[in-house]
Design brief:
CATH topology: Rossmann fold
Helix content: 55-70%
CATH class: Alpha Beta
Largest sheet: 2 strands, parallel
CATH superfamily: P-loop containing nucleotide triphosphate hydrolases
Order of helices and strands: HEHHHEHEHHHEH
Pathway: Purine metabolism; AMP biosynthesis via salvage pathway; AMP from ADP: step 1/1
Number of strands: 4
Shape: globular
Main location: cytoplasm
Strand order of the largest sheet: 1-2
Bound molecules: BIS(adenosine)-5'-pentaphosphate
CATH architecture: 3-Layer(aba) Sandwich
Enzyme class: transferase
Protein name: Adenylate kinase
Distance between the termini: 23 Å
GO cellular component, one term: cytoplasm
Number of domains: 1
Length: 191
Amino acid sequence: MIGPPGAGKGTQAVILASTYKIPAISTGDIFRSNVANETELGLQVKAIMAAGEYVPDSLTNAVVESRLSESDAKAGFLLDGYPRTTDQVHELDRMLTAHGTALSVVVLITADTDEVVSRLLNRAGVEGRADDTETVIRHRLALYEEQTAPLIALYAARNWVVTVDGLGAVDDVTSRIVSALATKGIAAPAA
Ligand code: AP5
């Protein structure tokens, strides 16, 4: 899943993981959990995340490679917020080729800047995430445009991208994603 900060990637990833019975792998969540537990990785990334910068590709790629090798990812997985750089795209290609697999679809969730800033400022009041201040939110959005938005064209050239409007009720966005996945032949397993 790709889209600007606040588009709803994490919210939708949790719902889709349950619907499609595959693990949602969120690099942001993995890093935050390491920060909270004060692991060596957490100590390395804490200030980077608080500033809204990207964690170095080498660290991020290693985290994803390790997570993808766990048994629950063998039958499918959903990546939330990875890859975000061209280097990460190439590393992911390499990892998946080594596992004899590939991505099936890239879900782009769109939302305009006013909406995402408003959502993230609202979340700041609820969760107190260090990177949800207005200055850092705007920096994260700029970094997304500079480093991550160009990946959409790269994946579109592979015909993998479906674009979903992220505005409106969470359930409505989920329905749009489920419909878009169906156009790529991806259906939820029977309950
Ligand atoms: P990450 O946690 O991935 O942050 P992000 O991309 O900035 O995404 P957000 O979690 O802010 O937004 P989201 O699109 O997931 O929306 P959400 O569902 O949460 O990454 C954090 C940091 O980790 C990065 O800045 C970087 O430092 C590092 N990092 C992570 N991955 C990396 C990578 N690959 N490479 C390098 N560094 C990496 O929703 C946001 C809010 O909106 C919530 O409050 C939610 O309740 C609300 N909301 C959701 N949907 C709706 C809706 N439809 N209507 C109203 N409100 C909604």
